[in-house]
Design brief:
The chain is built from six helices and eleven strands. α3 crosses α4. The chain folds into two domains: 225 residues, Rossmann fold (3-Layer(aba) Sandwich); 34 residues, no CATH class. The model has no long low-confidence stretch (mean pLDDT 94). By secondary structure, the protein is an alpha/beta fold. A hairpin with a 2-residue loop joins β7 and β8. The strands form two sheets. The chain has a nine-stranded mixed sheet with strand order 9-8-7-10-6-1-4-5-11, with helices on both faces. Strands 2-3 form a two-stranded antiparallel sheet. It is globular, with a radius of gyration of 22 Å. 29% of the residues lie in helices and 23% in strands. The chain binds flavin-adenine dinucleotide.
Length: 270
């Protein structure tokens, strides 16, 4: 079983700052982590590999510093890592990002001589938040997609994904090769051992550039010029809400105080 997990390096903060002129994220001085949903996807892939055998490859598109994120995935159970990085890819929106990743997938599959049976993405990136790259990748590759998967089974050559919906969940079966986007799972991603961290530090990471994909890559679909999304203006919402913290000696006293405040504001009677 060949499994690919797409991961994104994201800023380790909830206080995202935007460059007012370029309308892009200011990443300088902000520590980075692997996108949380991608760590669940990686753990799901590693568990499936332990059941069926095979390999788990992690892939990211980003700046050279994204190698750090790939190394942390190698330490957490991935076998191989691929970085997609080149100037023409800078400024890509989700359409261009998913197109470039699909081209890189095709490039790696051609080299290996086999396709990835399963491609996992996180549900969404905690910085960009669009949740479009997984579905975009499925569309570009022409492979079926299951979104919002929290549990995965592989039985009788069929993948079964437990898909969360508004009323509960559905179990959906699909034959590979396919794509899934992963939500928070019931289990936590494993902690890497010290040995695994040291080995990952020295591991080889394959880099894919525009030149590596030149036979099939359409450069007009990459980067800013290949991105139909135009960020015209960005603003940070002003926080106008005043917060009152109620911390009385006991929960009962706190509840009483809250009731008094709500009664004063005529939200409820007393
Ligand atoms: C006009 C424009 C210009 C932009 N310029 C820049 C820029 O200069 N620099 C910049 O960093 N961002 C830029 N962005 C943001 C960029 O489009 C998104 O970060 C990117 O396309 C991913 O979208 P997302 O974060 O919403 O991911 P989502 O769709 O929410 O991510 C879902 C999942 O897809 C996978 N995934 C997402 N991104 C990647 C990736 N890069 N590699 C591998 N897997 C991935 C992960 O599994 C992730 O969990 C720009 C956006 C626009 C609209």
């Amino acid at each position: 079983m060949n499994i690919l997990v797409c991961i994104k390096q994201v800023p380790d903060t909830t206080e995202i700052k935007i460059d007012p002129e370029k309308h892009t994220l200011i990443r300088d001085g902000v520590p980075s982590i692997v996108n949380t949903f991608d760590t669940y996807a990686l753990e799901m892939a590693c568990r499936l590999k332990e059941e069926t055998g095979g390999t788990v490859t992690v892939m990211t598109m980003g700046l050279p510093q994204a190698k750090k994120a790939l190394k942390s995935c190698l330490a957490a159970g991935a076998d191989q890592a691929v970085l997609i990085s080149d100037r023409p890819f800078g400024g890509s929106d989700t359409l261009a990002t998913s197109y470039i990743i699909s081209q890189a997938v095709a490039c790696v599959e051609k080299e290996k001589g086999s396709v990835f049976d399963l491609i996992l993405c996180g549900k969404q990136a905690i910085d960009g938040d669009t949740a479009q790259v997984g579905p975009g990748l499925s569309e570009h590759l022409g492979r079926p997609l299951i979104t919002y998967v929290s549990e995965l089974k592989y039985e009788e050559a069929e993948f079964q994904g437990k898909r969360e919906n508004d009323d509960g969940y559905d179990w959906i079966g699909v034959k590979g090769p396919c794509v899934m986007t992963v939500v928070k799972t019931a289990y936590e991603p494993r902690y890497p051992t010290l040995k695994a961290k040291i080995e990952a530090e020295w591991a080889q990471i394959q880099t894919i550039t525009a030149e590596s994909m030149k036979e099939t890559l359409d450069l007009s679909k990459c980067g800013l010029k290949g991105s139909p999304t135009k960020v015209v203006r960005t603003t940070t919402p002003e926080n106008k809400v005043k917060c009152i913290y109620i911390k009385e000696a006991s929960p009962a006293l706190s509840a009483g105080k809250l009731a008094d405040i709500l009664a004063q504001k005529k939200v409820m009677g007393r």
